Amino acid sequence: MAKQPKLNKLFDKFLEGQAIFKDRDSLRPTYVPDEIPFRDSQMNRIGSILAPALRGAPISNILCYGKTGTGKTVVSKYVLQMLMRKGAESNISNLTSAYVNCRIVSTNYRVLKSLCAAIDAKMSDGSEVPFTGLPTDEIRSILMQKLDSEPTIFVVVLDEVDSLVKRDVNQGNDILYGLTRMNSDLENSRISIIGISNDLKFKEVLDPRVLSTLGEEEVIFPPYNAVELRGILQQRVQLAFNEGAIVDEGVINLVGALAAQEHGDARRALDLLRTAGELAERRGESQVTQEHVREAQKFIERDTITETVKTLPMQSKAVLIAVYALTNTGSRDIFTGECFNAYAEIAEKLSIDTLTQRRVGDLISELDMLGLINTTVVSKGRYGRTKRIRLAISKSHIATILKEDVRLSNLSKEITRK
Questions:
Q1: pLDDT bucket at 41, cuts 50 / 70 / 90
Q2: Considering the entire predicted model, what is its pTM?
Q3: Where in 342-383 does DSSP place strands (E)?
Q4: What is the mean pLDDT of residues 78-105?
């Protein structure tokens, strides 16, 4: 008799175990439930701004602010879904919408391409708008011609809109200026923007012309407190887990408390509960325990750090590598001056511009806020003050991330040899 492959045994063990999840997608940040708790004020505000669209009237642009995991995306999608449903029930055919995640769709061309796809705008020969190759003005013209072919109210959600400007201030402002000013060129239709930002200082880098039109209405999303997080988790447990699965109150309280420490991040709470459930499922267990939650926390923290480092701008990576390189030589306490000198060498090797010491100091503060390094202000007496810098994550973790980056892998080898 042929020997069974090891994977077969693994799959058999999984099938024999308890089926914990009924709908694991309900624990993902993109899931929009039928009811959204603790956000009535924000829903009513956005709904009242969008409501005139049901009578064909133009609606104001909206900026939604709040930290990650405060419900901005879910609430915006929910209100928009309800608006579209009400329009369909009332036989209002001129309402349409689009959702664009600007962290993924990050260029002027790709944003316009996504909007063309949402309303089925095509080239003059009937073909789809290509992914690349057209002048931006031409693709914008295609979008406008489609919109003006019949009266339309087009509501566009630009999620993480701040990432457009962070990648390239000029290009980001150009995208937003072009969209917010499009109404002045449209004859039969109107476009309205719902911008969603995790950065409360986002407006400071916007062109004043963009700010005056994009920020017509503002909706603030405060962090959830521990009680609200528990309420959200209890709702999602009912949606996500089978009746035979045991998720006790202690697990919900622990997940809520851990997420409350992260400034009321519901997204983190849901990820933590889902990962804990998946750990229990893989082991064939029917109960999600606090031990599963603690283990899930370690997995998520590691993944979060990796993603954070990978998405840093190159200048911030250079500063982090400088701290890593100095730590690797045995320096426990690193001060701002020596960090800048190490950064300058690394910037030269990476062929990037060397920033001023003051700007590098700002980047050090940003890395501290991200939890990648720890800084302490130290007085040097009559020589002024400086910052003492230490890595907040393990050297081995950074080394692994650097090796996976093609541009930084050779530099990583050089640092490791020292």
A1: very high
A2: 0.74
A3: 373-379
A4: 92
Cα separation of 90 and 418, whole Å? 71
Q: Do residues 237 and 202 lie in contact, with contact meaning Cβ atoms separated by under 8 Å?
A: no
Q: What is the pLDDT of residue 271?
A: 92
d(CA 240, CA 28): 10
Residue 159 · residue 153 · CB < 8 Å: no
Residue 289 has pLDDT above 60, yes or no: yes
Least Cα distance to 266 among 108, 38, 62, 77 occurs for: 38
CATH topology classification for 312-417: Arc Repressor Mutant, subunit A (1.10.10)
d(CA 340, CA 364): 10
The full set of domain ranges for the chain reads: 39-220, 224-308, 312-417
**314 vs 86, higher pLDDT:** 86
What b-and-e string marks burial along 49-80, b requiring 16 or more CB atoms within 10 Å of the CB?
Answer: bbeebeeeeebebbbbbbbbbbbbbbbbbbbb
d(CA 100, CA 78): 15
DSSP string, 28-71: STT---S--TT-HHHHHHHHHHHGGGGGT-----EEEE--TTSS
Is 39-220 a CATH 3.10.350.10 domain? no
Q: How distant is the alpha carbon of residue 406 from its chain centre?
A: 24
* Tens digit of each residue's pLDDT (9 = 90 or more) over 216-263: 899 999 999 989 999 999 999 999 999 878 898 899 999 999 888 877
Most confident of 112-126, 160-174, 296-310: 112-126
Q: How many angstroms separate the Cα of 184 from the Cα of each of 177, 179, 191, 241?
A: 12, 10, 10, 50
Query: How many other C-beta atoms lie within 10 A of the C-beta of residue 400?
Result: 14
Token pair, residue 50, equals 């969008």
Contacts of 324 (CB under 8 A, 6+ apart): 391, 395, 398, 399, 402, 415
* CATH 1.20.1630.10 fits domain 224-308: no
